[in-house]
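During the no-cost extension, the postdoctoral fellow (Dr. R.K.) reprocessed legacy sequence entries with the updated structure-token encoder. One reprocessed record is reproduced below for audit purposes.
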Amino acid sequence: MAVTNPRFDLAAPVPAWDALGAVHLVAIGGAGMSAVARLLLARGVRVSGSDSADGPLLDALREAGATVWVGHDAEHLHGVDTVVVSSAVREDNPELAAARAAGLLVLHRSQALAALLTGSRAVAVAGANGKTSTTAMLVVALTEAGADPSFACGGEVAQLGTNAALGSGEAFVVEADESDGTFVVYRPEVGVVTTVQPDHLDFYGSAEAVAEAYTEFAATVGDLLVVSTDDPGARTLAEAERARGRRVVTFGSAEDSDLRLGESVAEGLGTRTAVEHHGTPYELVLAVPGAHNVANAAAALLAAVDGLGAAPSAVLRGLAGFTGARRRFEVRGEVGGVTVVDDYAHNPAKVAAVVGTAAGVVARAGRGRVLVVFQPHLYSRTRDFAGEFAKALAPADHVVLLDVYGAREAPVPGVSSALIGDPLVELPGRRRVDVGLGREAAVATLVAAAAPGDLVLTVGAGDVTALGAPLLDALAARAEESR
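Re-encoded structure tokens follow.
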């Protein structure tokens, strides 16, 4: 079954970036859309855009040269040749409707990004989990190796201070989002698949369709496919692609991995891992925590070295200096011995990774607990994976479940965060679970419970990230009152 998207012709040839003319981006303030806007501006393209609300990101795009409006209006399309949208933009959006009526070229965000890859050695990083961190790691490693890559990442690369930039080198690294099937448009020289797991079933409908989409992504890769052996779905993909004669290199703890991960030793929030790359031993040092980040770094190492020919020593130095991507186990602050960490995790495997990592951190410290405020993202995902989310959250000592963040979905009768909370209460272990708290109540509850040594996580793809600042403020006020 071919990956299809009823709104966009994914098989259509993508024009080169210099054939797009003046470009207007609807919802320009989104993470992916703003990355495309930055890259188009860097190429000298005339860029305009609109979004529903103003903010610092729109100000930054204005400073970079874009014309940006707050609110959507067909009048914004005067002089525009190409309109770029994401799957979140509805067909009845006045700008999109006007563009279609006028016969303007309408591209999905991924197609516009693919246009920017013209003439580059493209690397596309895909996977249900880890693609943002892997993309960011690869960019930092290639920068250390002197490659000066261009990139578009789903999160801000912390030490570079941006989610996209146009470099002077041949390499162009993109995060390839599988959520709507559009990751098949990039046709990269090097493709990376971190994990193949059921997600975005609101689009795909079944786990089998998800796996088929990754097969189609693999078919678009021109030279090298980098795949995990530790993830069952990814391993199945690697074996099938090798059988088809495709060049595949693998990473993982399995003996047959081309980059084999050995024993890891925790050092503070980081790790030191023995690895063997095609028989040559190395030490992989990271400043970011968790076994999942060791796997992400392994994928980046293979893409840089086996895929693009970078020197292993330089890549390892770059990975050692990697400080993280925004909202990926991002330490927001510490007050009175309580540390607040923010993470974008929104499917069960990602939530399990961040909660497990936090549990490991406090265990190594010899004191403290893990307190989590989790905001489920999408009613369909909550309905389909409620039990898996409960298991992922189970290692925490205290879980606060906010209401579901619907994003593009309307509420579904009977679907709430209680679908996660009810089975979580029944799982073995002792933990406190609070369901359906509002934002202020969640902050007050966590601050009242937190003690020195505790690690508080704000987790989810919605606006739960905004709780970091009030949590720290409330902790500071509590500390002041106790003096």
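Residues 81 and 314 are 43 Å apart (CA to CA). The longest helix spans residues 348-365. The remaining legacy entries will be reprocessed before the final report is submitted.
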